[in-house]
Specification:
By secondary structure, the chain is of the alpha+beta class. It folds into four domains: 123 residues, Beta Barrel (conserved putative lor/sdh protein from methanococcus maripaludis s2 fold); 97 residues, Efflux pump adaptor protein, beta barrel domain (Elongation Factor Tu (Ef-tu), domain 3), CATH 2.40.30.170; 50 residues, no CATH class; 76 residues, Helix hairpin bin (Helix Hairpins, Orthogonal Bundle), CATH 1.10.287.470. Helix 2 runs antiparallel to helix 3.
Length: 409
Amino acid sequence: MNRSIINMGLVLLSSLSLFGCGDSKDKGSAAAKNVNAPVPVTLFETHLQPVVYFDQFPGTVTALMQVDIHPETEGYVTGIYFKEGSHVHKGQVLYEIDKSKYQASYDQAQANVRSAQETEAQSQKDADRYTYLNQHDAIAKQTLDHAITTLNTSKNQVNAAKQDLKKAQTDLGYATIRAPFDGTIGISQVKLGNTVTVGQTVLNTISTDDPMAVDFVVNEKQVPRFLKMKAADVNPEDSLFTILMPDNTLYPGLGKLSVIDRGVDPLTGTIRIRIVFSNKDGFLRAGMSCTVRVHNEDKQPQIIIPSKSIVEQMGEYFVYIAKDTVINNSANNKNNDANKGPSLRAAQKKVILGQTIGANVVVKSGLEEGDKVITDGVQKLHDGSLINAQKPGQQTGGNIPQSGDKKKE
């Protein structure tokens, strides 16, 4: 009985072993078949086309002239004569500080001048009289000397009184604060009745409003490009300056290159650039953030491909293109019908990239017009991979745009 059971067990084990071997062979065949199966890909056929794009830089709107208004005298604010946030003109009265004591000092200085002038006039008469008498030997010479000394003293007193009058007049004038130039004035930092102190209190800020400047920084590698623009003293068609407002709308005006800073910041390797825009409508305000767009300088048609087709390896960039080729492999010729004739295979090519334009990128070198670039399925490819591709024009990536923006960090 036990021997029969053992025999049955051996038979079952043998059967299972046979089934297991059959499964392993089937799996191995399937795996080999999958390795040699073409990778499904999508193609994009390259062609030359005109490219319009803009280099983008974060910018800040800046007034060409801006000053803080400080009082030159101390006292209470007795008058505010402008509308906050409005445009003011040079010489326009903005503030008035209590001028009563300065007016009193001015009036006293005027009186001192008149008194000194009267004393001078009397001294002049005495000097003239004593001079006449001295000519006829009617007085002592010492008397004449005293008269001339008194006259000179009187003249000096007049000059001193006049200087005091100028100082009093200046102090009185400082009590009335006027706009130093045409521009926009901000919100007042003081109210009526506030006490102001010389050198400490800021009354307000005024800045020019037309034209306005926009400052941005560029990498030092781009300095020669902007120096050429500055030397030309014009904005050529391929280098127009425009800006995007904070709401991403295009400002209705073109800028002009105004200033390139004196030197490069050694810490960041950047340099500051200033462009100037007309601001007749007052849309630009000091401190506003914007995006500066610098038109590209490339005039020749270029090749543009979808960015998703790029493969980066060790800091270099590659793409796969589809090529009809025959690859001999004697070890697999018996089992691989694909090797019996031309096959569509992936070929890796190194490329030099240019500007990024949205979801696409300009290829400076490495591709030729008519190359069929693989855009989808690149993750499964290696050089020489067998591919199953759609016809050019059936790509799913959409059309390449004719213009775009490149944002500079």
